[in-house]
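Provenance and format

Records in this collection were gathered into a single text stream. Each protein contributes a sequence line and a token line. The two records reproduced below are adjacent in the stream.
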Amino acid sequence: MAARPKISIIGAGNVGASVAQYAVERELGDVVLVDVVEGIPQGKALDLAQAGPVHGYDSHLVGSNGYDETADSDVVVITAGLARKPGMTRDDLLFKNAEIVGSVVDQVVKRSKNAILILVTNPLDAMVQLAWRKSGFPAERVLGMAGVLDSARFRTFIARELDVSVENVTAFVLGGHGDTMVPLPRYSTVAGIPITDLLPADRIQALVTRTANGGAEIVSFLKTGSAYYAPAASTVEMVEAILKDKKKILPCAAYLNGQYGVKGLYVGVPVKLGRKGVEQIIEIKLQTDEQAAFDKSAAAVRELVDKLKL
């Protein structure tokens, strides 16, 4: 019997713990939870292990304050960093989280030379670029979770607006994670029908705006934290596509080398995800206004990357 895949999750806060929960519930592999706070990863790992008999999973869960337990991971999910607080811009997070992510990547890469890294820490696109630089890994093995979440938010709002199942709704989102994301309504469909045929332009625009501000809307409710259920579910969809070699097309922050007119930068685009990581970047022809929005989004990412001197 082959050993189960090994998934290490760095950062055992709400997002990390929820990634662990969804991953073992889907029996994707054994999980190592790592966090700097003593007792938190150990306690959460033990608690989740004790849900195993009820949910019917045999995954092994370990919590640690160090990195030795992460050795030979197949996938490493990095959620470590500060969450955005009300009034904080994503840029305020930039330097603090760059420091945290940089040190995490150094520790992880020493112990798991063949892992695939999935970044969740904000500001997302810049953190992926940093992780890729720090790791020395090929770009296809370093990617970021943002588009799956943005698409999930967009799909939720479309489904509610039209009173249809979320399963019927496909959404298409490009660009950086945050205020400059680029949803493509003409490729967003309900049972194959473009939403541009089902909704007036002003309603679509309202949904697009709500999606772009999706994280901030949740922060304003929670006051002391940010979203974690949907971000974790989105991350696990990526982990599953990789570990099961599904060749699933998902929007992810991936390294562009000329695609969409962008070179040398991580930006959100549709990719084919499989056991090797990013196996293909799906390039579609954008209309003039869409390309302009995408360029603006890439420029916003480039600005952060330049601030970090990457």
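Adjacent record:
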Amino acid sequence: MIEARNISKSFGAKQVLKDVTVSFEPGKTNLIIGQSGSGKTVLMKCVVGLHEVDQGEIDYDGRIYSSMKIKEKRNIRKELGMLFQGGALFDSFSVQDNIMFPLNMFTKQSFKEKLDRVNFCLERVNLGDANELMPSELSGGMIKRVAIARAISLKPKYLFCDEPNSGLDPMTADHIDKLISEITKDFNITTIINTHDMNSVLNIGDKIAYIYDGKLWWEGNKDEVMKANNKELEQFIFSTELTKRIK
């Protein structure tokens, strides 16, 4: 479990997060939602250690990130998987080399051990024959699946996904949601997803944190979100659905 406790974060005179306390549970897809500028992306970056918090603490299963030494933080990094918006594959690397990159960086495994792990991860995302393909040969959905395979290559305890459905058609987006949800449950990962996609919220929102004006405004799950008696959340849901229809 990851717990963010009493998190505040400012950039200059602008306070972006205001005393946010929220927990993210293992074996569940934990979604952070909110309008652009609400603070949801900053919250994720604070949790993953890309931003230092001004106040509060991030707790990784009893380990306080801000109290760790450099070596301890490096060890935490090995436990994190990252799925970036757009996939962020290395264009000059093959699929196999992209997935092997974290293994080369953080392990001393033999090439055979690393290749076995690459093949396992590719099979898990239904791309068992894609080792030698280059990113330029992949569709948008395949790029996301390779990125997921890379994100789980180190057997992470924690998986962070930034807008995983960005740029995908609805059917492919549903496949990516299902894959992330299955991997989360199969390996008991604490998965945190930053998204504004209401389909994701309704399909895989095991736990949902709605951020509004830098504060935790509502918590619940996919079965509760449409029934929430919360004006700001209702406006967010309506505006998101309306924007999708216009597009």
